[in-house]
Structures are given as structure tokens and as C-alpha cells.
Amino acid sequence: MIKHFLNFVQSFSGEMLVHTLVVSGMVINSSLTKAEPSLSVVYPPSEHETTAEKIFFIGAASPSGEVLINGEKINRSPQGYFAPSFPLAIGENSFTLRHQEEELEITVTRIDTTPQIPEGANFAENSLTPKVNIARLLGELICFSAVAAPDARVNVRLGRERINLFPETSVVALPPNSAVLTSENQPKTITSTSKYQGCKSFTVTGNLGKPEFEVSLKGKRETQEGMGEIEILSPNDLEVIEVIADAGVARTGASTNYSRLTPLPKGTRATVTGKQGEWLRLDYGGWIKESETQVITDSIPPKSLIRSITSRQLSDSTEIIFPLQVPVPIAIHQGDDTITLTLHNTTAQTDTIKLNNDRVIKRLDWEQVTPTKIAYTFHLKTQQQWGYDVRYKGTSLILSLRHPPKLSIRKNQPLQGIKILLDPGHGGNESGAKGGSGYPEKAINLLISQLLKQKLTDLGATVYLTRETDIDVSLQDRVEAIQELKPHMALSIHYNALPDSGDAEKTQGISTFWYHPQAHNLAVFLHNYLTAKLDRPSYGVFWNNLALTRPNYAPTVLLELGFMINPWEIEWITDSREQEKLSNAITQAIIAWFNVSSMKM
Ligand SMILES: [Zn+2]
């Protein structure tokens, strides 16, 4: 499971968990058929709260007899697993699960998400926006909103301005990204939201303080101070910052809900054109957290010229050096056989580029796209790209493109010289998803990774594991391992689960996840190879922004090999013969992919 949709609470004895952890895999089944079969429900926990319209019950009981939920017989797999869904009413929902003499009570509370509309001359709690301090350039629109009773009159006073807010008759709301997993991602039109909104541009600079919101209804009037101060920035006096994080996280907006842009290398400088809470908007359009930057005093807005460009070949990569006057914001985009570097705040005076016959680069084209933006497009000799890195050394930008691995010609050692990193997901305190008996994803992730390590090593590969035992490893440490070890391929091994509203009984299959185009071919190849060779259902190939798909140093793919919560798939997942087949198939897929991608050279 990639994210923790399921916040599990242990609902069976700790002893059983230790048991299944130690032996892993198969043994769960025998524990189910022993003399003391216990009805176990691993999800939801006994006092679960959710906003979903339905809930599934993930559990197991010995195969004999029936399992009833609120008197209704439920479907079970041959070994006794179950995952039925039940609708939820708003508020408390009681469920009684019965198997032979055993009975379990579970209460699930469905939280009402419909916005509460206040009565009379009042604002809905916490509804005034902006919610944080914001700064915008002179002349930019600044918008205010509040939720109040229908038919109210709402306005905002700020400085010498008075801004009328108008009711929004309908809003089109977008579900969260995770809704794609349950095919519930369609926009929803919400009418009569009682949200009032108005925007205004300001003509004076400086801190205008907090806006005062006023609502009036039927002769009554109420005022409330806004939460954030509004500052208007003078274009003559803007701050300049430098990125102090190794790879500053740039985003399309001022919160982690906004998409990531190309990370900004340490040392990048840019002018601040806006602020929102802890976020800074930089001159080229990206937003970054203030804590990843420091203010550079006595600095004029950073801009650079660029003249000649050079390159040099190292043993396993080519470095292209862009001498600049100041480290500027960058963006990188990969195509099928291109990689494009964009330099912002840069103007060309380029007449010469030194680029010898190179192992990976066929040609470099460049274009001044706007007066302050240059795009460098590298046309590559190979379709498969093997990873890149970008950093500032002083004011020079260094882009390094990795060379393809040299494939072994020894028949019994086809992976000799190939370095592969395997990342068994979760571990330690973090269990990941759980099968109906409580068997944790972290255990199967490690087991499959160890099987793979053995098989790949036997074929000549050098294999690294991000963990060899049941320990906590942070996402950061896993990503750094890829950066430091520079494998030719990195695979993160996971098994899946669903959000509460998902259909756990009917959802099965293998899925692969990629982020950079250099990993797309690998993700598709592994998905198609495994579903065909093992005759397993497909859950799909996803572009997905994940910590373990984002590394750019090597083609990196995250695999979700099946659904822990599916009653039938968990039997396949925990079957040791099937685990052997699966790890053989992944091994063969890796060999085949290296052969296919190297042919494209
Ligand atoms: Zn996982």
C-alpha cells in the first residue's frame, strides 16, 4: 500500500502477529484451521470514523460455518477470508459479526461533510479566507471569501477599501487524487454553498493589516477580523532568496496539495514575488517553503547571461556544464529520446557549444523561448534514459546524464555488471496494508525482496536492499540510498489496499507506478510481463507522484503486486509456491527488460 488509507488497530492478539511475522507467508493458513479458530477483523478498528458512504470489513475466520454481519451471510474465500462492504448512514452504525460461538461488535461513525450553514448574522466557523498572512504584488487581485447564511450581505474592509462579497450559486468540487483508485473522481456540482466571494487589486504598498469581515441579515450586523494580514509588495523592493535545501521542493501553489515542479538545486537564487503563510512565490512561478530558503541581503533581482557551453565524459556519465552569472531556477522534462533543461531568468549570448561525439547525446539544440527563458533540448542516441542528476557548482549548472549499463555476454550470468536496488516497503512500526488474518504487508514485501535478491544475485547482478529485516526505514533514507548507490534500476515492492469506499471484495491485480518518463517503459514492461506470465488481473499502470517513484538517478518503479485486503488475492499472496513463481517472473522480466532496452541503443 502506498499511503495509509487504512489506519489499522490491532484487533487480534499480539501473539498471533508475532507468530505470523516470524514464519511469514503460508503459516497463517494453518493457524486458521487450528483448534481455536478466532474470528478476526483487522479493519475497520472498533471505533472507526470515516467520511465514506460505505465501509468494508477485512477479516478471516476458520472456513467451516458461516460468518454473518448483522444477520447477513457474507462471501468468503476457500481459506475463510472476507471483505464485504456495507453502506453507512450519517452518524453511528453498529455492526455485529458472528462466526459460530464468537461475536464481535464494531461501530463505524460516518462523519457528515455537508458544510454547516450558519443562521442569522454570523459567519461559519473558520470560514474566512485568506486564512494565513499573504503578500502580493501591487495591482494583483486578492480574493476574500466567507460562509454565511443565504440572503445575507457580506463585505470586507481593508485599508481604505470596501469590497463586496457575492454569493457563489454553485461550486464544482473535485474529489481527492485517491478517488482515481475507486473510479469516483468525477467533479461534483454543489449548489447553495452559502459561500461569498470577492476580489480586489490594491494600489498602495505596505502591510494593510487584517481585513474586517462584515455580515448583515434582517437588520442585524456582525463583524469579525480575518485571520491573515495582507501585504502589498512594491516591485522596487523585492526580497531575493537562495535555496539552502539539497533539492528545494518547488510546487505549483502554496500548499502540499499543489503539484511538484522540478526540484531547485541548492544555491538557486530567485526573487520573491508573493507569500502565503510559510510559502514563497518565486519570480519564475514556482512556490517553495520559506524554511528551504534564506534571504540574501543587498541583492538585485538575480538574472544571468549565458555564453559558451562545454561537456565532458566520465566513465559512466556525461556532464554538461552551463556557466552562469548566478544560479537560476531550472526545470527538466524528459521526452522519448530527448531531455530538455529550461533555465529561467537567463538570456543567451551563445555562439559556441563544445560537445564531442558522445556516448548518449546525439545533438544539443537550444532556443530562447521567452526573453528570459532558454530551453536546451538534448537529442539522445538511446530511447531508454538511465538517470540524470543536476547540481550547482558555484554559479555553474552541471547536468549529468548516465550512460547505459554494459550488458554481460555470459549466458549464465546475464546480469553481471548490473546494479539493482530493491526497496521492501514499510517495516518496523509501519505495517502497511494487512490481510484478513492480520498478516502485514511489510512482511510479504521483505519476503519477495529477499527471494528476488537471491535470484538476481545468482544471475550476476549486484543487489542492494533498503532493509534486510523488520525495521523502520524513512522514505528519505530509501531515496538517499538510490542517490548514493546509483543502481541501474530501483524497484519498490508493495502490496495494495483501498480507501474505505473501495470494493475490497472485487478489486484484485498487479499495478505499477512511474513518475519520470525514463521509468515509463519499465513500468509498462513489468506490468504486462507479470500479468501475462502469471495470469494475474491487471489493476493498471499509473503515473504517480510518490517518494519512491520520484528519484531521477535511475529508472525507478513502484510495484503493487496484489491486494492484501482481497479475500482471494491474499491466498495467492501468501502461497509459498506462488511467491516462488512471482519472484521468478519478476527476475525474468528484469532480464528481458535489460535486453529490450539495450537493443534500443
Ligand atoms: Zn505499501
> Over the alpha carbons, how many angstroms does the gyration radius reach?
28 Å
What class do helices, strands and sheet pairing give?
alpha+beta
Count of DSSP H/I helices:
7
Give the amount of beta strand, in percent: 35-45%
The 3D shape can be described as: flat
Largest sheet properties: 8 strands, mixed
Unreliable stretches, pLDDT < 50, 5 or more residues?
A: 4-35
Distance between the termini: 35 Å
Ligand list = zinc ion
Average of per-residue pLDDT values:
91
Residues in helices, as a percent range? 10-25%
Number of strands: 44
Which descriptors would you attach to this protein?
flat, alpha+beta, 44 strands, six-stranded antiparallel beta sheet, eight-stranded mixed beta sheet, binds zinc ion, 601 residues
